[in-house]
Amino acid sequence: MRIDIITVLPELLRSPFDHSIMKRAQQKGLLEVVVHDLRPFGLGKHRKVDDYQFGGGAGMVMMIEPMSKCIESLKAERDYDEIIYLTPDGKRLNQSISNQLSLKGNLMMICGHYKGIDERIREQYITLDISIGDFVLSGGELAAAVLVDSIGRLLPGVLNDETSALFDSFQDDLLAPPIYTRPADYNGLKVPDILLSGNDGAIEKWRYEQSLKRTQERRPDLLED
C-alpha cells in the first residue's frame, strides 16, 4: 500500500512513521508513506498557500490553486482509491473504516490547516472526509498519523502475529477483555485462575464475557449500534 500525505508542516509527520510498527511495515515493503510539502506549489516569491476568506471572518483559508496543483501532480503519477480530507466535519473514524481502507492500494490524505481548505477542493477532489473525534486540532497532520497507523497495522504481514489485530477492541463491536502477563501473583494481586487453567474453551468463553461486561460498563453505545 502507498499513502501520500499533503501538508504545510511535513516535519510534524516525520516521527510517527519512523518508529515501531509503522517503521517495520515500511522496511518490509508492505507500506510506503510519502509526505509532500505543499509550499513548493505556493504562489509568488513567498510561496503563499493561504489567504483571507471571502465574506470576512477570522482565520486564513488554504487556497485552491496550490492545493489543486499538488493533487494533480500526484494524480498524474498514479490512480488513487480514495482522496481523504482530515476534517472535524467528516465521518468519525472507527475500526470498520480502517478495515475497509486497509484493503485499498493507493490513498491520498489532505491535511487541513489554519481555518481549513477552500470548499472547491472538497467538491472537486475529495472522496472521503474523516474525523478522528469531536474536537478541533491545529491541523490535520496528527489526525493523518492516527489514520495511517490504524490502517497500516492491519496490512497482512505487518504484525508478527496477524491474528492479533482480529482481537483488538472494536473489531467485533466489543471492547477487548482484560489482559495479564507474568508474574501470576504480584504482592497479592493475582491473575484470574481461569487464564492459568490451560482450558482454551473456558478461557475463550471468559474473554468473551469480560469483553461484553466491559463494553456494557464503558461503551454501552457500541451495543446499541
Task: Describe, in plain words, how this protein is organized in 3D.
With 225 residues, this protein is an alpha/beta fold. The protein folds into 2 domains: 2-152, Alpha/beta knot (3-Layer(aba) Sandwich); 169-224, tRNA(m1g37)methyltransferase, domain 2 (Trp Operon Repressor, Chain A), CATH 1.10.1270. The chain is built from 7 helices and 9 strands; from the N terminus they run E-H-E-E-E-H-E-H-E-H-E-H-E-E-H-H. The protein has helices at 20-27, 64-75, 95-101, 119-124, 141-152, 200-218, 220-224; strands at residues 2-7, 32-37, 50-52, 60-62, 82-92, 106-111, 128-131, 185-186, 189-190. The chain has a 5-stranded parallel β-sheet. It has a two-stranded antiparallel ribbon with strand order 3-4. A two-stranded antiparallel sheet has the order 8-9. Strand 5, helix 3 and strand 6 (106-111) form a beta-alpha-beta unit. It is elongated. The model has no long low-confidence stretch (mean pLDDT 94).
